[in-house]
Structures are given as C-alpha cells and as structure tokens.
Design brief:
By secondary structure, the protein is an alpha+beta fold. The strands form three sheets. A nine-stranded mixed beta sheet has the order 1-6-5-4-7-3-2-8-9, covered by helices on one side. The protein has a six-stranded mixed beta sheet with strand order 16-15-18-17-20-19. The protein has a five-stranded mixed beta sheet with strand order 10-11-14-12-13, sandwiched between helices. The structure holds adenosine-5'-diphosphate and magnesium ion.
C-alpha cells in the first residue's frame, strides 16, 4: 500500500545546518561520498549486529555490500546498501532532526565565525548525511527497515521542508539518490556520474571500508562492450597491514573517516600486542579539540573491532575518560563478536589493554615534548585541560601526566613551563614547587600573596583551569619536590628573624585589636613575611579549600 505523501518541516537547527551545506564554501565537496558511504557501512554493521542479537530477525547477511549507480543523462548518483534500513519514524527523527548535543552552541559560533572557520567548525561537528546537499539540489531516500514490511520514501531539496511517504516496493536497506547540481563553472568540475571519478574518490576516502563498494562498469573485451561488476575498494584494514606499507595519506584519510574531522591528525600511534590476548591498535591524536570536549556526554573516540569486524563506537572501556579525545581503532583477536559493553567493563584483559593504551598515548606525548616542541605545544593547548583530569582520576599515571604537563608561570608570560624546566631553574634555598590557583592570570599575578615571591625571584606556577584545583591539592610532589600553595598555611620564606618574638610583642596590641574586630571572619591575625607592599592579605589554612574550589563545588550544586 502506498500511503499519502506528507510534507514535514526540518527542525530549526537542522534547517540552519542544511543552509550551511547548500551554500557551503567548503572547497572539498567530494567528502559527501565519504559521508554517505560511511553511513551505508554503519548500516551494514548494524544489520549484522542486530541479526546476532535477534535470532528471530529473518534477514540475509551473507552479502552485505554497498552499490554505486549513476545515470549520466538524469545526472543522478545513487548509493545503495542492504543494511539495517530505517522505519518511517527513524527517517523523520534521524534525518529530519539533529539530536547531537551542542548543536545550538555550534550554530551560534558559526554565525559569528569568518568564512574559513565555518568549514572547520562544520567539520568538527561531522555533518554526515546533509553533506549530500553540497553537490545535490534534490535528494531522495528509499529505505526499508530489516524485519518491516513497509518502506519509506523521503525527499527534499534542502530547504525548509521534506516529504515522506510510505511505499511498498522498497528493498530492505537504504538507497540515497543525489540529483546532482548543474556543474558549476567555478567548481573543479567533478563529474560524479563518471566511473573514474568515483573510483578514485572511493580509493582516496573509503578504501578501508570493510564491506565491498561495488559498481557496474562497462569494459571493452575483444571489441565488444560488456558490463561487469567492479569492487572499488581494497577493504584492507590499515591496522593489520605492515607499518611501512601504509602511507601517511592513507592514515590521514582513515582518521578523517572515523573522526569526522576535516583536518589531518597531529600524530598517529600504532601498537600491537601478541601472546595470550592479541590486539592491534591504531590511534590518533587530533590536531584540534572537538567543540564538545567538555560537555557531559562527550564521546570517546575509540572503536572496537573483533577480528576485523566492527563491534562498537565510543568504546569507553578502551580509553580512560581524560583521554576521550583520542580517536582510533582497537582490533582484538580473542573476544566474541557478541561482546557487550557490560562484559567489556568486567574483563580483566580489557582493563589491562586500556592501561597499556593510556600509557602509550602518554608516552607518545612525551616523545612529542622531547622531539617536536611545536606539535607538543599544539597538543597541550588543545587537550592539556582534559589530560589534567587524569591527575585526579588515574593515580597510576600521575607522574607520567605531570611529566608531560605544562603550566603558566611567573617565569615567562608568553610560554608555559614544564615541571622539569621549573625544577631546573629553582634557585638555592627553594624547597618546594610553588603555585597559586585563581580565575585568571591577572588575578593571580596581582594577588598580594605573590609579592614576597616576586621580590625573592622565586617562580610561582599560575594555575587557572578549574581542574587544577582538583588535582594540585592531592598531587603531593613531583620528583621529590612538594607542591605548595603560596596562598595557604605557613610559607617559609626564611623569615624567622623578621617576625620574631620581639616584633610580635611590639605589634601585639594591634594584632589583638584586629583579631577582635574581625573575629567573625578570620581565625587569627598574625604578622607575615609574605607581603612587601600590600598591608594585609587573607591566607587559607593548610587544608582549607580555596575560594575557586568552593565556587566550583557550588556551581556543581554540592
Ligand atoms: P551520523 O552518521 O554521524 O550519525 P549522519 O547525518 O551521517 O550522522 O546520519 C544520521 C543518521 O541517519 C545515522 O546515525 C543513521 O541512524 C541514519 N542513517 C543515515 N544513512 C543511513 C543508511 N544508509 N542506513 C540506515 N540509516 C542511515
Ligand atoms: Mg554519518
């Protein structure tokens, strides 16, 4: 039964994002193919996984594949998969709306941004399906969900509305037909109906997709034209190929495929383990933080494969939360294809693997620090704040994290310092690593607590990230030197003589009077050697929480 056609409106955010696509100034429009192929590949994986989980689902998973078909006269390109498909509701909800958190913020940023940044921001967001509208002025989706009888036809020209109708002749799976825009004079005239073009795009962007991407091609054989099916991709898993055989360009494309980033990664990490629990990992440090690094539901970027077969995205068991920005793939040989998140959480081998992966990431950053300062700086300015969370949550790696950390300091306004460099500069007589936390560099620098240290020429770390409050208290020491707040407790500035008993006596009247007047607000009033020009300052007890931390707890509702 073919139902009535309904016209629906895109959700407001979706409409805005679509507009950006339609008028995209992003020069590399070719990536639309990567996006649609990756959706098709996801749909094939989902069908396979669902057929494991649901034995009653009567589907054929013996020839999961993606098919490209073109019509040069009609100027269409169709990408078809025999995967999970979508129900009518799913089409409306998945294609008509954007459920991703942070969409509103992203769109607000896009409004302010300059043209060039626009593409970058969109890239970080991962536009997915909508990228079809960069090259098409109309898109038709025909889909039927596995296990359902009725199919759905969806169509839109990328403006405010789309149509949906129920159809009875849709094969299981999804086909997306792009009605290509007229070739633009200014554009680098790509003909997306040409086999050669598509072959090279697939090889460039989607070669490693683990399902075959097929296309009917015409060949001349013995003077006769024959049609035959060609598989355009090699389907080789990058992480399973010898390192020397894979080019940087291939790694970079793979990174973009799994991360939805549009720029190359900062660093590629490979790791493999043999023996009782075998696995290979191919990980990437991105060159920029994603827009949602600090939102509550920020995802972790590592995918789990079992024996080359995709199992799950965002596998939280593979990477600790403070390294959630690391992207990549882990392929384990000895897990069941049925493995679930719950099982992974309890698996001892998995937790060993996770520790090893985390250590490898940290040691990679260490080698950037030692060998490629510029890359290291980029890394730390993008991800340092997240990595520092590990000082609280991953005590095992505390020293490794402190070893790759950089901090603002009074030593140099422009450049951060490592703790190693801080220790190397420490003058004779200085015992501790001094720091002060605060909301901004200016606040800390102008604090009266700073005066005596400035006068003495003792360097003070300036810690302004909210997370600093959380770790620095419990960090204890680094290479035998204690972290000491300059705003708390007794600070020993070898001042015994100045604040000796004689002086205390001399000022006892004043101190007593002040103590009485301020008794509701302070515990004690005493002479201090901290100050050189300010008359007074407030000092916390050794174990008090700082005003910043108190503010943070309040903000968190505690
Ligand atoms: P993403 O892939 O990042 O989720 P997309 O915009 O690419 O975002 O796709 C949105 C959603 O639409 C997908 O998550 C998926 O649920 C659905 N979808 C897109 N293409 C297909 C397809 N070929 N088969 C089944 N579902 C699809
Ligand atoms: Mg997608």
């Amino acid at each position: 039964m073919t139902g009535q056609m309904e016209t629906l409106e895109f959700q407001a955010e979706a409409r805005q994002l679509l507009q950006l696509m339609v008028h995209s100034i992003y020069s590399d429009k070719n990536v639309f193919l990567r996006e649609l192929v990756s959706n098709a590949s996801d749909a094939l994986d989902k069908l396979r996984l669902e057929s494991y989980a649901d034995k009653d689902l009567d589907v054929d998973t013996s020839d999961l594949h993606i098919q490209l078909a073109t019509d040069a006269d009609a100027r269409t390109l169709t990408i078809t998969d025999n995967g999970i498909g979508m129900s009518r509701d799913e089409v409306v909800n998945l294609i008509g709306t954007i459920a991703k958190s942070g969409t509103a913020e992203l769109l607000a940023k896009l409004k302010e941004s300059k043209d060039r940044q626009e593409a970058e921001l969109i890239g970080q967001f991962g536009v997915g399906f909508y990228s079809a509208f960069m090259v098409a002025d109309k898109v038709t989706v025909l889909t039927r969900r596995a296990g359902q009888q009725e199919g759905t036809r969806w169509e839109s020209s990328g403006e405010a509305t789309y149509t949906v109708e129920t159809v009875d002749d849709a094969p299981q799976g999804t086909s997306v037909t792009l009605h290509l825009k007229p070739a633009d004079e200014e554009d680098r005239l790509f003909d997306y109906t040409d086999v050669g073009t598509l072959r090279s795009l697939v090889q460039r962007y989607s070669d490693f997709i683990s399902h075959p991407i097929r296309m009917e091609v015409e060949r001349t054989k013995d003077g006769e034209t024959v049609r035959e099916t060609e598989t355009l991709n090699s389907m080789k898993a990058l992480w399973a190929r010898p390192r020397g055989e894979v080019t940087d360009a291939e790694y970079n494309e793979f990174y973009k495929h799994i991360s939805h980033d549009w720029v190359d990664p900062l660093e590629t990490i490979r790791l493999s383990a043999e023996g009782t629990f075998e696995y290979q990992a191919l990980l990437f440090l991105p060159s920029r933080a994603p827009y949602d690094l600090f939102t509550r539901d920020a995802k972790r970027g590592v995918q789990l494969y079992v024996k080359r077969v995709f199992i799950m995205d965002d596998c939280e068991s593979l990477m600790p939360e403070y390294l959630r920005f690391v992207k990549g793939v882990v392929d384990a040989q000895d897990l069941s294809l049925n493995v679930s998140r719950e099982i992974l959480q309890q698996d001892r081998q998995i937790s060993l693997m996770r520790r090893r992966l985390a250590k490898k990431v940290l040691s990679t950053v260490k080698s950037l620090l030692d060998n490629d300062t510029e890359k290291y700086r980029t890394f730390w300015s993008e991800f340092g704040t997240a990595v520092k969370e590990g000082l609280v949550t991953d005590p095992d790696n505390r020293d490794a994290i402190l070893g790759i950390a950089s901090f603002d300091s009074t030593h140099d306004k422009a450049e951060q310092t490592t703790l190693r460099a801080y220790l190397d500069r420490m003058p004779e007589g200085q015992e501790h690593i001094y720091y002060m936390t605060g909301r901004s560099r200016a606040v800390v620098e102008n604090s009266p607590h700073m005066e005596a240290f400035a006068a003495k020429g003792w360097e003070v770390l300036i810690l302004t990230d909210a997370v600093d409050e959380m770790w620095v208290e419990s960090a204890g020491e680094y290479e035998g030197r204690k972290f000491q707040s300059i705003a708390k407790g007794e600070v020993d500035l070898d001042s015994g003589t100045e604040t000796g008993d004689k002086q205390d006596e001399e000022f006892s009247g004043l101190l007593g009077w002040l103590g009485e007047k301020l008794s509701d607000h302070v515990k004690q009033v005493r002479l201090s050697s901290r100050l050189t020009t300010s008359p007074a300052c407030i000092v916390g007890d050794e174990h008090d929480i700082t005003p910043e931390l108190a503010r943070m707890y309040r903000a968190m509702g505690q």
